[in-house]
Design goal:
- Helix content is 25%, strand content 20%.
- The protein contains 3 helices and 5 strands; from the N terminus they run αβββααββ.
- Strands 1-2-3-5-4 form a 5-stranded antiparallel β-sheet, covered by helices on one side.
- Strand 2 and strand 3 form a beta hairpin.
- The protein is globular and about 35 Å long.
- It binds guanosine-5'-monophosphate (5GP).
- Guanosine-5'-monophosphate binds next to strand 2.
- The site of guanosine-5'-monophosphate has 12 residues, from strand 2.
- This is Histidine triad nucleotide-binding protein.
- Pfam families: HIT (PF01230).
């Protein structure tokens, strides 16, 4: 069973403008901003505006337009941040074993340094 969406999670508050963020991109379906505790010289988060807990419910329930828009946005944010030529890493944590801390889907974009083999 999947957890219900918590409308008081921190990213929902950012989407409602109740707490600030360092925004780098916004369109109809997506918002991107700097991670508050960066793990790389560039560490951005891209989130859909819809109420999705994780990749799991997003991939199953989101309208195709929202999915396509979000995927486009992730790519555009990486391009605008200058990450493409040197290269970058993206990941999304899902649920407890994934160590997902904020229950609103977010894709992490990491750049600005060399990454190494995945350490699962
Ligand atoms: P998770 O572990 O859920 O994949 O990642 C959550 C991320 O959200 C962490 O990297 C954490 O630093 C970031 N984060 C948590 N609270 C805030 C916040 O209030 N503002 C911003 N910009 N990032 C946050």
């Amino acid at each position: 069973p999947r957890a219900p969406y918590d409308p008081n999670n921190i990213f929902a508050k950012i989407l409602r403008g109740e707490i600030p963020c360092k925004k780098v991109y916004e369109d109809d379906f997506s918002l991107a901003f700097h991670d508050i505790n960066p793990q790389a010289p560039v560490h951005l988060l891209v989130i859909p505006k819809g109420a999705y807990v994780s990749w799991d419910d997003f991939s199953e329930k989101a309208p195709a337009e929202e999915i396509a828009g979000f995927i486009r946005a992730v790519g555009q944010v990486a391009r605008e941040a200058g990450l493409v030529d040197p290269g970058y890493r993206m990941l999304a944590n899902v649920g407890g074993h994934g160590h997902q801390e904020v229950p609103h889907l977010h894709v992490h974009l990491f750049g600005g340094r060399q990454f190494y083999a995945m350490v699962p």
